[in-house]
Amino acid sequence: MSASERFGDSLGHTAEDVADLIPMVRRIVYARVGSHPSAEDLVQETLTRVLSAASTVEPGMLEPYAIVTARNVVSSLWRDADRKNRNQHRLVDLSAPEPPEKQVVLEEEQSAMATALARLDERERRALLDHEVDGTDTHALAARHGTTAGAVAAQLNRTRARLRVEYLLAIEHVDPPTDRCRPVLIALSSGDQRRQREVQAAQHLLECEPCARLSQPLLERGQQRDDCLRIPVSSDADIVSARRAARELATRLTFGATDLTVIATAVSEVCRNIVRFAGSGEVVVELLEAPRRGIQIVARDGGPGITDVDRALGDGFSTYGGLGLGLPGVRRLMDEFAIASEPGHGTTVTMTKWEGTDRERPT
To answer: Residue 147 has what pLDDT?
Structure first.
């Protein structure tokens, strides 16, 4: 039995009922907010609420419940935006004026960024700005360019790596002395160890003083990889960022829409626990190639821990009085689930979703 089927059975509905909600909810939300940057977050929030309450919904009423929930979530967005606009005039800036040198630094940074962006080719620059500034997701960019969301995400990562290098060159007013400099710095910026070996980055840094100096801030980024994300979590906004990042990374594999929603929902739940009970923590999301392709999420915190893990994983146990699925629900969503917790020393949740466990595949 697949994870989706187990999930559906646990809620009293079939896997088809659960899967069919996803395109319907997405249509309702996008019909009301269009290309608003928060559209996909509204979809995820709606599905989280619906899936959490599904066990209490009468048979045959799950779809109407999802429709009403989607409308309420969208209405909340507009109410919050309207309230912010109406009260904007009441805000008073009591901070001290910025010193003149800070403005000079800001102007230098803006000039360096403009130079770096100009050094990207037009397609790279347009895709990056559409994604980072306008909030266009990778699915929309993929449809626009006739490719896949995973390919777009990979290209965006390469573009960011190049942009970091061009920004450093501009802010430091450095003209690379050799043709090898940019490939080496970009390989360091992307954290691609295979590419670093190909361009003999280590040897080049020993021979090139400008690159050795410029490499320091790139190396201090922690050798970030484009198949692994580390997201600090300490607020509700971080919950949204984490589930969005996890879903976007998962699109690089062949997960169907149901599994993508399952992954985002599971990440949302473990992040909600971090914020509510520990105050802060982090989530690490990583694509796996062995023993098979999949995605792994590790959520860590240094909070009070769980005194009785077995009880916390039992059916019907809720760590708080909201609509959250809780740890038992999260365990049902994923293919593998493990938790380590010690009172006074925090909690670590590790969960994995493998390719091929969902009946649905992208067309």
So the answer is: 86
Give the residue among 266, 259, 310, 306 at the shortest CA–CA distance from 285. 266
Query: Cα–Cα distance between 12 and 21 in angstroms, integer?
Result: 15
Q: Helix and strand tally (H, E) in the chain?
A: 16, 5
Q: Are residues 35 and 80 in the same domain?
A: yes
- Residue 363 resides in a domain: no
pTM: 0.47
155's tokens: 């290209």
Are the C-beta atoms of 73 and 44 separated by less than 8 Å? no
In this structure, the answer to whether residues 142 and 186 fall within a common structural domain is yes
Nearest to 247 by CA among 266, 271, 222, 232: 266
Strand residues in the chain grouped as ranges (E): 228-233, 281-288, 294-301, 336-341, 347-354
Measure the CA–CA gap between 216 and 205, rounded to whole angstroms: 10
The CB density around residue 254, as the number of other CB atoms within 10 Å, is 15
CA–CA separation, 138 vs 2, rounded Å? 27
Structural domains counted in the chain: 3
Residues in the chain: 363
Which DSSP category does 172 fall into? T
Residues 259-268 pLDDT 10s:
999 999 999 9
DSSP H helices, 274-362, are 309-312, 326-333
What is the identity of the amino acid at 209? E
Amino acid at 128: L
Q: Which residue has the tokens 């009070």?
A: 304
pLDDT bracket for residue 57 (50, 70, 90):
low
Q: What is the DSSP letter of 276?
A: I
Cα of 28 vs its chain's centroid, Å: 23
